[in-house]
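Title: Comparing notes on inverse folding

I've been comparing how different people in this forum approach sequence design from structure. To keep things fair, I'm posting one structure and asking everyone to reply with a full sequence. Here's the target:
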């Protein structure tokens, strides 16, 4: 190594060391918060005043006993009090400075900043609340980005397929026969399905959907929902056409079972669950809808079963999230059109609106989704 290179390397190390020392000093200085265990900011201010008075009094006593000029002692007393106040006040106001920096970062779009909330007083509570707010904003921003990305992806697929069909018809590659038009109609229905689900989600986010719960006979109601799927080929929100090779089996016990729920919202639950079960059922399979009384009066337990591949245990909570489809084993199957990933999210919202529960339960074969409605009219916020 040449002398010049050694000087360069040594100089670079010397340049780095002050920077490291400065950062370490700043870190130690920021960690000096001796008043954090105190639970009240009033108590902290009282401690500051009391210690300042004690320091000043002690300096006066020293001046009297040492025959030092009182003027000199007062100067040193003021300097000592200011240094102590600066040391204590720095830790006292550190969360406020951190919140200011984090707020500026969030204004620039960075929601990952957090505030050190070790203080136990009102400022510490404010810092903890600020961190919760920052986490909520970060989650909302992430959800917004995911929603835009997922919606863009969902719209691009049927639009591209529809465009390909129409271009082939215009170019004369294929004839506009019923099969071609049926393919175009299928993609159009998929677009309508996605738009309908997005409208439902907008109602969810606005939180303005009222709950009109009333008592009804369960068997006629469910039979009407399933008959609507069979007759006009659609479910609530314009869902996909039911496959002709599937059988819908309705089981209600007892026959005169009644329950209390919002029929419109419950229609969304049953329709989306049956639609989801139909997509993942094998050819010639059966989708079973069971209903029985719950533990409380007018409560209801619904089960929708299919004979598909089922849902792995690690994906059972995630399938109820927006655009959640689980793993490849659950995302596709015979008769699946890919879906929008929104049906189960809408079903969970409708069940939550009733104060009920929806979950994926164990099944010997396929998937079994259980819905429990408590009955009665839940309290509204």
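Reply #1:
Here's my take.
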């Amino acid at each position: 190594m040449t002398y010049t290179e050694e000087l360069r390397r040594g100089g670079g190390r010397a340049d780095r060391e002050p920077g490291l020392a400065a950062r370490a000093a700043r870190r130690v200085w920021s960690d000096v918060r001796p008043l954090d265990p105190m639970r009240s900011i009033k108590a902290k201010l009282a401690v500051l005043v009391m210690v300042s008075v004690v320091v000043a009094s002690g300096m006066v006593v020293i001046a009297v006993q040492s025959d030092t000029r009182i003027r000199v002692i007062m100067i040193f007393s003021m300097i000592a009090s200011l240094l102590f106040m600066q040391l204590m006040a720095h830790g006292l106001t550190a969360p406020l400075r951190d919140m200011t920096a984090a707020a500026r970062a969030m204004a620039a779009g960075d929601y990952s900043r957090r505030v050190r909330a070790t203080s136990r007083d009102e400022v510490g509570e404010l810092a903890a609340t600020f961190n919760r707010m920052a986490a909520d904003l970060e989650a909302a921003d992430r959800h917004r980005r995911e929603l835009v990305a997922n919606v863009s992806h969902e719209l691009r697929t049927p639009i591209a397929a529809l465009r390909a069909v129409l271009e082939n018809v215009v170019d004369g590659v294929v004839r506009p026969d019923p099969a071609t038009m049926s393919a175009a109609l299928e993609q159009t229905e998929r677009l309508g399905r996605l738009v309908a689900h997005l409208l439902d989600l907008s109602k969810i986010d606005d939180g303005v959907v009222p709950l009109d719960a009333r008592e009804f006979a369960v068997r006629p109601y469910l039979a009407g929902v399933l008959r609507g799927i069979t007759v006009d080929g659609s479910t609530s929100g314009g869902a996909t056409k039911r496959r002709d090779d599937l059988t819908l089996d309705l089981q209600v016990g007892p026959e005169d079972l009644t329950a209390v729920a919002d029929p419109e919202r419950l229609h969304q639950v049953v329709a989306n669950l049956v639609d989801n079960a139909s997509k993942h059922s094998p050819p010639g399979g059966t989708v079973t809808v069971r209903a029985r009384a719950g533990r409380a009066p007018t409560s209801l337990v619904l089960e929708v079963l299919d004979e598909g591949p089922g849902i792995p245990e690690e994906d059972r909570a995630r399938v109820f999230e927006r655009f959640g489809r689980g793993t490849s084993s659950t995302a596709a199957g015979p008769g699946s059109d890919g879906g929008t990933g929104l049906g189960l999210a809408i079903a969970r919202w409708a069940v939550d609106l009733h104060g009920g529960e929806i979950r994926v339960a164990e099944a010997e074969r396929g998937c079994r989704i259980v819905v429990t409605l408590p009955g009665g009219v839940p309290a509204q916020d």
